[in-house]
Specification:
This protein is mainly alpha-helical and 318 residues long. The chain contains nine helices and three strands. Strands 1-2-3 form a three-stranded antiparallel sheet, covered by helices on one side.
Length: 318
C-alpha cells in the first residue's frame, strides 16, 4: 500500500521582534516621561534653592542626564511593552502619593515630607510609563539613574533629625576623647565641647551630614561607572560613609584646637577652609578607594579567565 506523506499544515512561526518605536509611537512614550521628570525637578528646585544642604540637587540632575545618555545605546531594543495590570497598579499607587504631596504643599508649605511623597509618586509614574511603552527590561536598564535622582530629594524630619543628632553626638564624643588624649581638658555637653577657656558647638554643618550626602552621591556615581560587581559598589558606598564621618571628626578637632589656642574669634577665619579641606580629603579618599577596588576587580576577572582557559585545555592522553 502506498503511503503518501502528509505535509504539515503548521508552519514554523518566526519569533516576533518588536520594531523600534519611531514618530508618534516614540513621542507617546517620551512625552509623559519628560512631563513627569520636568514637573518633578520644578517642584524640587525650590528646596535646592532655599536649603543649603540640598544645593547639590542641580548637579544630580546633570549626572542623571549623563547616566541616561551613557545607557542609551545599550538599551534592550527587543523589549516588548507590557500594558498589563502591574503597570496600572503602579499608576494607582503613585496617584495618591502625588495627590497627598501636592495637597500638603498647597495647603500648608513645601516640606521635605511633601517632597518625598511627590517623589515616590513620580517614581511610580515613571516606572509605569516605561514598562507600558517599552517593557520591563527597559525599566531595569534605566532604573539606576532614576533611583540615583532620589539622592536630591529632601529627607523628612522623622528620618533627618535622628541622623543629624546621631552624627553630632558621635563627632562631639570622639573629639572630646581625642582632645583629652592630647592633654586638652574637654567635656561633652550635648553637642557642645566645653574647653578650658571657651565652648565650641558642633552644629548641623559640622555634624558631617552635608559631606555624607555629597560622598554618597559621588560613591554611587563612581561605583556605577567604574565597578561592575554590586558588592564592590556597596563597599565603596560604605567607604563614603566612613570617609565623611572621619573627615568631619578631623574638621571638628581642628576647629576645637584652634579655638583653644587662639579663641573663638579665630574660628571664622578657618571655618570655611576646614570645610573645603574635608571635602577635598573625602573626594581623594573615595577616588583612591575606587581605583583600588577597580584594580582588584580586574585582577579577579583575569584570574577567572585564566582558570577557565586552563579548564578548557586539552586533556592528557593515556
Amino acid at each position: 500500500m502506498d503511503v503518501t506523506p502528509v505535509e504539515s499544515t503548521v508552519a514554523d512561526s518566526p519569533v516576533r521582534v518588536p520594531e523600534p518605536r519611531t514618530g508618534v509611537g516614540l513621542l507617546a512614550g517620551v512625552l509623559p516621561l519628560a512631563v513627569f521628570a520636568g514637573w518633578w525637578v520644578h517642584s524640587l528646585q525650590f528646596h535646592w534653592r532655599d536649603q543649603e544642604e540640598y544645593r547639590f540637587g542641580y548637579l544630580v540632575v546633570a549626572l542623571v542626564a549623563f547616566l541616561v545618555w551613557d545607557r542609551w545605546d545599550a538599551r534592550p531594543r527587543d523589549d516588548a511593552p507590557d500594558p498589563g495590570w502591574r503597570s496600572w497598579a503602579w499608576l494607582g499607587l503613585g496617584f495618591p502619593l502625588v495627590l497627598l504631596g501636592e495637597l500638603y504643599r498647597h495647603a500648608l508649605a513645601r516640606t521635605p515630607a511633601s517632597a518625598t511623597a511627590l517623589s515616590l509618586g513620580t517614581l511610580c509614574f515613571l516606572r509605569a510609563v516605561i514598562v507600558q511603552h517599552w517593557g520591563p527590561r527597559t525599566w531595569r536598564h534605566f532604573r539606576f539613574p532614576i533611583f540615583f535622582a532620589m539622592i536630591a530629594v529632601p529627607i523628612p524630619g522623622i528620618l533627618w533629625n535622628p541622623v543629624v543628632l546621631g552624627l553630632k553626638g558621635l563627632v562631639t564624643f570622639v573629639n572630646v576623647e581625642v582632645l583629652s588624649l592630647v592633654g586638652i581638658p574637654a567635656q561633652q555637653q550635648g553637642s557642645v565641647i566645653q574647653l578650658p577657656n571657651c565652648r565650641v558647638g558642633v552644629d548641623e554643618a559640622c555634624s558631617g551630614i552635608r559631606s555624607l550626602q555629597s560622598s554618597l552621591m559621588i560613591a554611587f556615581f563612581i561605583g556605577d561607572q567604574v565597578l561592575r560587581r554590586p558588592v564592590l559598589r556597596w563597599v565603596l558606598v560604605g567607604g563614603a560613609v566612613g570617609w565623611a564621618v572621619v573627615g568631619n571628626i578631623g574638621r571638628s578637632f581642628y576647629l576645637s584646637l584652634t579655638a583653644h589656642r587662639h579663641g573663638t574669634d579665630a574660628l571664622e577665619r578657618v571655618h570655611d577652609t576646614a570645610g573645603w579641606s574635608v571635602l577635598l580629603v573625602t573626594l581623594s579618599g573615595l577616588a583612591a578607594m575606587a581605583w583600588v577596588l577597580s584594580r582588584w576587580e580586574s585582577a579577579l576577572v583575569r584570574l577567572r579567565a585564566r582558570g577557565h582557559a586552563r579548564g578548557k585545555g586539552p586533556s592528557p592522553t593515556a
